Amino acid sequence: MKLGQNFLIDERVASRQIKYAELNKNDVVLEIGAGYGILTKKIAKIARVIAIEIDSRFIQSLKKIPNVEVIHADALKVDFNELNFNKVISNLPYQISSPITFKLLDADFELAILMYQKEFAARLIAKPGSKDYSRLTVMAYYKADFELLEEVPPKAFKPMPKVASCIVRVKPIGKRFSVDEKIFERITKAIFQHRRKKIKNALASEGISIEKIPYGDYRAEQLSPEQIAYIANFISEHGIV
Q1: Angle at alpha carbon of residue 123, lines to 120 and 124, rounded to 5°
Q2: 7-172 to CATH, choices 3.30.40.10, 3.40.630.30, 3.40.50.1820, 3.40.50.150
Q3: What is the pLDDT along the chain (241 residues), one digit of tens a residue?
Q4: Beta-strand relationship, 48-53 and 28-32
Q5: 208 phi/psi in degrees, rounded to 5
Q6: 25 within 8 A of 87, measured Cβ to Cβ
Q7: Phi, psi (5° rounding) for residue 30?
Q8: Boundaries of CATH 3.40.50.150 in the chain?
Q9: What number of other Cβ atoms are within 10 A of residue 95's Cβ?
Q10: Which CATH number fits domain 181-237: 1.10.287, 1.10.8, 1.10.1760, 1.10.150?
Q11: What span, in angstroms and rounded, lies between the C-alpha atoms of 181 and 184?
Q12: How many helices and strands, by DSSP H and E, does the chain display?
């Protein structure tokens, strides 16, 4: 998708990605960062593909693949809700993994099979109390189920990255619990920006001050997403922000 991206060159890995997606001829698959088209060609033999690619070097070769609609654009600037697709299979450019993931989760689709940098994948599936548990974990959990399927070695890509990658299955769930989403996002950001502080002090640092805040003496990494949502709802109900 972007100049400098690490492109998948291992066709066996691409074949497994397609198997994980359980494709059939009625599916329409969104691929972000099609690159050399190794994955694109395999998907197009089974289902229709909408391939987004920003690098002009690949556009003409991608357009020659049957059953593929090519969009020459930056995926971050494409309105996914204007595209008609039900599945996503992509080897995401690592530098935009987070914004692309959340942009996708605001769209309507059934299933995604996504390639992430290993460290990023670990943060998506982290548990409270672990070193990888983060704002990303909480917000991702709120909107989808993430399952790590397999680790992929650097040699599967060109140029070869310095770190391993992981294939992850993503199933959107809408919204996991009832919460004021804007306040939930603000609270989650605040407490993880000050993750070594107690919740009451972390929120005070962001101008949100209340004496009897739920879980006030805990730290962000100790709380489940549901507990953080409880704090957000408490703040919302008391009109604190």
Answers
A1: 90
A2: 3.40.50.150
A3: 445 589 999 999 999 999 999 999 999 999 999 999 999 999 999 999 999 999 999 999 999 999 999 999 999 999 999 999 999 999 998 999 999 999 999 999 999 999 999 999 999 999 999 999 999 999 999 999 999 999 999 999 999 999 999 999 999 999 999 999 999 999 999 999 999 999 999 999 888 877 789 999 999 999 999 999 999 999 998 877 6
A4: parallel
A5: -110, 105
A6: no
A7: -90, 130
A8: 7-172
A9: 13
A10: 1.10.8
A11: 5
A12: 9, 9
CA 57 – CA 109 distance, rounded (Å) = 29
Write out the DSSP string of 120-188: HHHHHT--TTSTT--HHHHHHHHHEEEEEEEEE-GGGEESPPSS-EEEEEEEE-S-SS---HHHHHHHH
**Six-digit token string for 107:** 């769209």
Nearby residues of 241 by Cβ (< 8 Å), 6 or more positions away: 183, 186, 208, 235
Place of tokens 């994980």: 20
